[in-house]
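hi! just following up on the protien thing from before. the input was this:
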Amino acid sequence: MTSLPQFPHCRAGQSGTSLIEVLVAVVILGVGLLGVAGMQLSSLRSNQAAYERSIAIVAASSIAERMNANRAAAVAGAYNIALGGAVCPTPGTATLADRDLTEWIQELRAPGMLGNTACGGIACAAAGGGTICTVSVQWTDSRSGTASETPLIVTEVRL
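and the predicted 3d structure came back as:
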């Protein structure tokens, strides 16, 4: 009869891992995955905020180009419109400036843009031999975590 070799460094009662070790490993893995999910959520929220700011800057540039194309009316104050908040009235289509402003506000509020709470305002004033127009775009950032956050982008344009 041959006997099995004896290994002095092995304990006879231990074989494999215990359930406690598996449980600890699963808990650590779960906490790590929750952390990754939280970081992903934060990243998505920040990307949405950056996207909305980019849209606001492009919209401000859009109305600035329209005002530059209709420079005489812009210098005369035809593009001046108060920042109306959530109401944000559109001036209609009586003149080219009114039509530009109406289309601009409708573009701001269009789906995929800044939403129906977006509004824009323009204030032009003579300054130093020229005209400086301040273009403001405001909207409600619904994904910021606080429903009351209303970012405001202000751009100055010299005509």
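The two ends are 105 Å apart (CA to CA).
The mean pLDDT is 86.
cheers
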